[in-house]
Amino acid sequence: MSSVGHIEIQGLTLGFKNFGMVNAIVENISLSFSAGSFTSIIGPSGCGKSTLINAIGGHYKPITGHILLDGCEIKQPTADLGIVFQQHTLFPWKTVIENVRFGPIQRGIGKNDANEIASKYIEMVGLSGYEDYYPKMLSGGMQHRAEIARSLANKPAVLLMDEPFGALDAQMRTTLQDSLIKIWDETNVTIIFVTHDVEEAIYLSQKVVVMSRNGGKTNNIFDINEPFPRNKGEFLFSNNGRILKEKCMDALAI
Ligand SMILES: Nc1ncnc2c1ncn2[C@@H]1O[C@H](COP(=O)(O)OP(=O)(O)OP(=O)(O)O)[C@@H](O)[C@H]1O
């Protein structure tokens, strides 16, 4: 079990100012993500999933309430909070290894050590041999792998993922899902994963949080008590898998 990466959300309200008025998106939610856990967040479009994940990443300030990482208030983005988005954010003018070692070098780590760190995570995501490729020379799935390696190279306590596999075809998605579970197992990082795909949420996570249409309420939280490693096909079509899927779909319809 990991000792770092515990996120605690207390009475959180998030919103945006429009014409001088604050429009609350997420209202008074409280949630806990234990250190080293894997949680998925699902919910209807526009309910505030991305807003919440960005706030956990230190990009939005709460209107009220608190977001704590291991007991300390999150006030700004830090290396402890890695974020992977659906859209690619790799530097196009840098190679894979230059992208991945960027964070460590920014943190003052020497080039040789940064290369070693980068190589470790490039290998972990299955991109060995592509170190000197530029992003445009990689497929969409490979770019996602490089993004994940770049986040992991900062040794974050928490990895926040906002629909990272949303734009990929089904086969690539399954491959990356399996890679992610392996990476989670190897790193013990806390993962908070936003997705539209109920099956993806159930397959990957220990817990699924369903946000509601109004005020992003999180009253429906389902524990996925299926041991890892999971067999995707078997689990999703098992009685347990089907019941969980139905429960999530019902909660989404509220
Ligand atoms: N920068 C912003 N300024 C004003 N309103 C915003 C801003 N960002 C998001 N919103 C609004 O906040 C609400 C929630 O958006 P958010 O992107 O968090 O939803 P979501 O659940 O992630 O949606 P989707 O599933 O479609 O990605 C939306 O109504 C959106 O218009």
From TrEMBL:
InterPro entries: AAA+_ATPase (IPR003593), ABC_transporter-like_ATP-bd (IPR003439), ABC_transporter_ATP-bind (IPR050166), P-loop_NTPase (IPR027417)
Family recorded in the similarity comment: Belongs to the ABC transporter superfamily.
Cytoplasm listed as a keyword: no
Higher taxonomy: Bacteria, Pseudomonadati, Pseudomonadota, Acidithiobacillia, Acidithiobacillales
A molecular function (GO) term: ATP hydrolysis activity
Protein origin, superkingdom: Bacteria
Identification of the protein by name: ABC transporter ATP-binding protein
Residue span(s) of domain ABC transporter: 7-238
CDD domains assigned to the protein according to its UniProt record, in alphabetical order: ABC_NrtD_SsuB_transporters
Keywords on record: ATP-binding, Nucleotide-binding, Transport
PANTHER family: ALIPHATIC SULFONATES IMPORT ATP-BINDING PROTEIN SSUB, TAURINE IMPORT ATP-BINDING PROTEIN-RELATED
